[in-house]
Design brief:
The complex is a heterodimer of chains A (434) and B (441). Chain A is an alpha+beta fold. Chain A folds into two domains: 218 residues, 2-Layer Sandwich (Cytochrome Bc1 Complex, Chain A, domain 1); 190 residues, 2-Layer Sandwich (Cytochrome Bc1 Complex, Chain A, domain 1). Chain A has 16 helices and eleven strands. In chain A, strand 4 and strand 5 form a beta hairpin. Classes of the chains: A alpha+beta (434), B alpha+beta (441).
Chain lengths: 434, 441
């Protein structure tokens, strides 16, 4: 078998045509017409994710849980009934950088469910009893996070990297903050941020642009922009002060995680770090998978991730391993990341990494929901829908020297997080090269 | 209602392999998904974990393909590949741009047909599988479900973990694995599905050329459960009259009464209540779909009975799910709740009341049609991409026949309240079930 590292001829999927329309009240509407299936997916983004929680960590999350549980016209039961009786999907979530209302319907039900989404976003009532219920469940969710070693490891890593920055939180918030929240907080937050000039509506599926925009106009067109200016988001500055955090508990595996403070999506180095993360930890031919799993049998799950964020994102590599391998795993991960700075990738390796990333990227834009999500997200972060093409071009033009430089700039001083049996994790304290 | 036309072509190659193809003219992607009747259910006694371990070892190459080479070939072309093993099947897929299928599919065939299972890689990859097991053991929900399955299927492979156990894996050898491979990775057990931007003729030719040289059959100890167990299903048995076991059968009759176990786990912040019932296998697919519909009525969405009553109204649970798992020989119906330990008894008895109600009172037409629509839409939502389609065809062909895949919406729509009531009476007895409880210690 030949090892063929030529550049792949074409991306797997043609780049989507996205029509962007701005309504008079400032709502940005994106439409991707896609006739393939009788499905329409809609993602409504509000710039009100958990980054906007301020001191009230967990606020956006609680708001997302209660938003669908009462409007001026409808009760919680009526809302659920309306969605489920047409077999639609409707859910609200709070990510760090945005608040999201997701809808999926067969095309015939699109108008009805979009109208319901309009009611939810514009006139939620946050019934007291629902706030109490969802608050209690959120507090339990926070406790339940402690059940998963990987979640504990990531939580303490974020705490170390982000300290008082909102990215330190999982988004669920903390026991101390969530227990203080009340209906008034939700109402005030909603009033401040849920406004048409803070909204992106992204639609993909069997609908024409004209029809989609007309429907959005009908549902949201008369929503007035508040006269109060939108508060500007100020996030605390971030510095790099690597440290090690350890939780000992009696688990079957140790989780070993290294984290780095890396650029935001707006940064010129974003594409380089994306390619590095993909080269290291995505797919069966990725560097960590081959070196630590295939050749050394140290892990089942070994991976890297670097999310697309409006503020500096974390770049994380991690694995789960038998307790007696904890130190070896830590050194193994560290060695692999350091290699990115000390050695330049060969041209063949670079090309293979680009092909892998671009192929995976194209395959992640197959369903209507994926398409609506990606473009809406780019628009919400201020990157614009053209970022899709721009990003792919950036990836294609990256050189090995640029990657090496980016690795040397960002990936030399890891924050270390370890979770596992006491004897095993304590050893890492002595051996880490940190 | 006319039966929906099956949009794919099913053919049998000369060697007995089943080939399924569907051309999607507008997609530049093509998916090849190879399904094998070689899941954990085929494992001989004391070989637990072999099918899944073999799935790992397949990627370790052949005489002509070094370990990892296949993964590189696929990913260097912007494609993706992976595999999965369950009780009823193992499957391996690749997704690639259309022009690359011709050069990548032969490599997948080479891996599957000529797996070398090298000695040195065997011990190394076993470490990876043991890590997978350790990771599962750190997941309380995995532990709970595994304990539940063992209790539902005490004498059938469905009760064993697909991952196997460390003890049994340590006793296995590359020779035994080769024997398992040669016994089961044979054309009559294999379905090759190709869906995407490639025409029938070139696809068929490609499959014909590449899936040709199968290994010489070897005999392997017989599966712990054989096909004969199909006869042992609890067929239409009235809920409170257990079937008498016959000695050759591994699916013992479902317990009459309640089979209860409690596990105390460290590090859990909430209790779990897991209740299960055994349903029919694919031979009674209509009844199985009816149970699927009943699971939606009970706990799918906020307006479903258990979610509304237990989470929203009485506020006794953090979450509650009802899952229906279709398996070849016996399907599994489960209700799982996450809750505070002090509510365990009350919730269990409320769930039993809801089941009693399903047995005694027909579902109202409005509720029924809502749930039917929900399932039919979910079905449509799950057929959006070529890989979803390929996977569904392969799955159904491995369990029964591919054509069943597209009959689902029609079958779901055809249910009347009385059918469901009968099925609830037959399969979901509030007096006969298995329950596993996890409590914090």
């Amino acid at each position: 078998m030949t090892t063929d590292n030529r550049q792949i001829d074409t991306l797997l999927l043609p780049n989507q045509t996205i029509k962007r329309t701005v309504l008079d009240n400032g709502i940005v509407v994106l439409v991707a017409e896609n006739l393939a299936a009788d499905i329409i997916a809609t993602r409504i983004f509000v710039r009100a994710g958990s980054c906007w929680d301020g001191m009230q960590s967990g606020l956006a999350h609680l708001l997302s849980a209660v938003l669908t549980k009462g409007t001026v016209q409808l009760s919680s039961w009526e809302i659920a009934e309306q969605v489920e009786s047409v077999g639609a999907h409707l859910s609200a979530d709070a990510a760090a950088d945005y608040f999201l209302l997701s809808l999926k319907t067969v095309s015939a039900d699109f108008a009805e469910i979009l109208a319901l989404a309009g009611q939810l976003l514009r006139s939620p009532t946050f019934p007291e009893i629902e706030v109490e219920l969802e608050q209690r469940l959120a507090l339990q969710d926070i406790r339940s996070q402690q059940e998963q070693p990987l979640t504990i490891a990531f939580e303490q890593l974020r705490q170390a990297i982000y300290k008082n920055h909102p990215y330190a939180s999982s988004g669920l918030g903390y026991e101390a903050t969530v227990s203080q929240l009340g209906r008034n907080d939700l109402q005030r937050h909603h009033q401040t941020y849920f406004r048409p000039d803070n909204l992106v509506i992204s639609i993909a599926g069997r609908v024409t642009t004209i029809d989609a925009v007309t429907l959005v106009e009908q549902v949201f067109g008369d929503w007035q922009i508040s006269e109060t200016p939108l508060p500007t988001l100020t996030l605390p500055p971030l510095g790099v002060q690597p440290e090690q955090r350890i939780t000992s508990q009696n688990t079957q595996q140790s989780i070993v995680m290294l984290g780095y403070l890396a650029p935001s999506a707006q940064d010129a180095d974003y594409a380089a770090l994306k390619l590095l993360a993909n080269y290291l930890g995505n797919g069966l031919s990725s560097r960590l998978f081959v070196e630590l799993r295939e050749k050394r049998g140290l892990a089942y799950e070994v991976s890297a991730f670097y999310p697309t964020r409006q503020a500096p994102a974390n770049f994380v590599v991690y694995m789960g391993t038998a307790p007696e391998n904890t130190v070896i795993a830590l050194l193994g991960l560290q060695t692999e990341v350091e290699l990115l700075c000390s050695e330049k990738l060969s041209e063949a390796t670079l090309q293979a990494a680009k092909n892998k990333l671009l192929g995976q990227y194209a395959l992640s834009k197959q369903t209507n929901a994926q398409i609506a999500q990606l473009f809406g997200w780019y628009e919400t972060l201020g990157l614009g829908v053209t970022f899709d093409t721009h990003f792919q071009q950036e990836i294609m033009s990256l050189t090995a020297a640029q990657l090496q430089q980016a690795a040397c700039q960002y990936l030399l001083k890891p924050y270390v997080s370890v979770v596992g049996p006491e004897a095993a994790v304590n050893l890492t304290l002595e051996t880490s090269r940190n | 209602m006319a039966a929906p036309v099956f949009p794919a072509t099913v053919s049998k190659l000369d060697n007995g392999l089943t080939f399924i193809h569907q051309y999607l003219p507008t997609t530049p992607v093509v998916v090849a998904d190879v399904w094998l009747k070689a899941g954990a259910q085929r494992e001989p006694e004391n070989w637990s974990g072999m099918a899944h371990f073999l799935e790992h070892m397949i990627f370790k190459g052949t005489a002509t393909l070094p370990p990892g080479a296949f993964d590189r070939e696929i990913e260097n072309r912007g494609g993706m590949t992976n595999a999965a093993t369950s009780h009823d099947y193992a499957h391996y897929f690749l997704i690639t741009a259309v022009p690359y299928l011709e050069e990548t599919l032969p490599h997948l065939a080479e891996l599957l047909l000529n797996a070398a299972i090298p000695e040195s890689e065997f011990a190394l990859e076993r470490e990876v599988v043991l890590e997978e097991i350790r990771q599962a053991y750190d997941d309380p929900d995995w532990l709970g479900n595994q304990a539940l399955c063992e209790s539902v299927y005490p004498c059938h492979p469905y009760g064993r973990s697909v991952l196997g156990t460390e003890q049994e894996l340590m006793q296995q050898s590359p020779e035994a694995m080769r024997c398992f491979h040669r016994a089961h990775y044979q054309p009559e057990n294999m379905t090759v599905v190709i869906v995407g931007g490639i025409d029938l003729e070139p696809a068929m030719e490609l499959v014909n050329q590449t899936f040709q040289q199968f290994q010489q059959r070897s005999c392997c100890p017989p599966p712990a459960a054989t096909g004969a167990t199909l006869n042992a299903l609890p067929k239409a048995a009235p809920a409170n009259r257990p079937l008498q076991p016959r000695s050759s059968e591994n699916l013992l009759p479902f317990p009459s009464g309640i089979r209860r176990q409690e596990l105390y786990l460290p590090r859990i912040e909430q209790a779990r209540l897991l209740m299960a019932w055994r349903g029919p296998g694919v031979e009674q697919i209509s009844s199985a779909y009816g149970l699927d519909l009943l699971s939606v009525i009970l706990a799918h969405g906020r307006s479903s009975r258990l979610v509304w009553e237990l989470r929203e109204e009485q506020q006794l649970v953090q979450a509650i799910n009802c899952d229906f798992l279709l398996q070849r020989e016996s399907s599994l119906f489960t209700i799982s709740a996450w809750l505070e330990p002090q509510h365990l008894e009350q919730v269990e008895s409320l769930i039993s009341k809801y089941l009693e109600n399903l047995q005694n009172t027909p579902v109202l037409p409005g509720e029924l049609s809502r749930c039917q629509r929900l399932l039919c839409n979910d079905y449509a939502f799950s057929m959006e991409t070529p890989n979803q389609m390929a996977s569904l065809y392969g799955y159904y062909n491995t369990l029964a026949t591919a054509e069943l895949a597209v009959l689902y919406p029609q079958r779901i729509q055809s249910f009347q309240s009385e059918h469901l009531q009968c099925l609830a009476q037959q399969y979901l007895s509030p007096q006969d079930y298995v329950v596993t409880i996890l409590k914090p210690c």
